[in-house]
Design goal:
The chain is α/β, with parallel strands linked by helices. β2, α2 and β3 form a beta-alpha-beta unit. The longest helix has 29 residues. 39% of the residues are buried.
Length: 285
């Protein structure tokens, strides 16, 4: 899909962060947008920004991607009004971190519902019409470095992001015969509102040690605009694995080539993170 002008593109999570930056980047390439997010005000702001820049917004809908019925009803409306789409981008996501003894069922469930089942709901409703249209197309799924590597305290988050990686890897080959490309985006640190709102279960975010880690994370973070540029380039070049920073590319290569040293690094990282847990935590007894 070297030529993006006029293509119809769906973007979830469009109200802020990577989703908003990608909407603006896609519009700048001449793509016509179908946008959704659970944040009504942010979604309206994104649509206004796109239109102010001369872009085209075909449809917006405030909804929760984990709600299958809502996604299905919206998909029916979009297809009735605009036909099948050319590009589908699953960007919406949430995050919660914590050790297994601190995570509650609601944390596990919300990660899987939004980060894995949400993209599946979008894929179920928008990709089959793309196949039937016979024009080819592209699917973008935003996973994470936590979908490639064993990061400390990321069990629930990684459950969803590794799952999305598996879906993407299968669809990469399944959809090839229909001339539909698949890109799996694996960001590391990104400077989005999620950095300030991510829930770290069982830890006081005001603890100076935690604040230092958050600031260190922000120091390595890339901008949403850089991620958006990489996503657009991935679609143009039909690139499967889309890295947004060199540290994750190197880390993933290291994990595959040097299994034993990777295990040592993972153990060391977990021990360092465990020092942030309260003294009463089972992990520190």
């Amino acid at each position: 899909m070297k030529v993006l002008t006029g293509r119809k593109c769906l973007i979830t999570g469009a109200a802020s962060g990577i989703g908003r930056a990608t909407a603006l980047a896609a519009a700048a390439q001449g793509m016509r947008l179908v946008l959704t997010d659970i944040d009504a005000a942010g979604l309206a702001d994104t649509a206004a920004l796109v239109q102010a820049a001369g872009g085209t917004v075909l449809n917006t809908r405030t909804l929760d991607v984990s709600d299958y019925e809502s996604v299905t009803a919206w998909a029916d409306q979009v297809h009735d009004e605009h036909g099948s789409l050319d590009v589908v981008m699953n960007i919406a996501g949430i995050a919660a971190w914590g050790t297994v003894e601190n995570l509650e069922h609601r944390h596990w469930k919300s990660m899987v519902d939004v980060n894995l089942m949400g993209p599946i709901h979008i894929i179920e409703n928008f990709v089959p019409p793309m196949v039937r249209a016979g024009r080819g197309g592209h699917l973008v799924n935003v996973s994470s470095a936590a979908g490639l590597l064993a990061l400390p305290w990321h069990a629930a988050y990684s459950a969803s992001k590794f799952g999305l990686r598996g879906v993407s890897e299968v669809l990469r080959f399944d959809l090839e015969r229909h001339d539909i490309g698949v890109s799996l985006v694996v960001p590391g640190a990104v400077r989005t509102p999620l950095v300030g709102t991510v829930q770290i279960v069982g830890v006081d975010r005001e603890d100076p040690r935690v604040q230092r880690i958050v600031k260190l994370f922000e120091g390595y973070a890339v901008t949403p605009e850089k991620v958006a540029d990489r996503i657009i380039a991935g679609v143009r070049r039909n690139r499967y694995l889309v890295h947004t920073s060199p540290d994750i590319r190197i880390g993933y290569w290291f994990a595959r080539k040097f299994a034993w040293p990777y295990e040592m690094v993972a153990r060391f990282a977990n021990r360092r993170f465990d020092t942030l847990l309260p003294a009463s935590s089972p992990a520190t007894q």
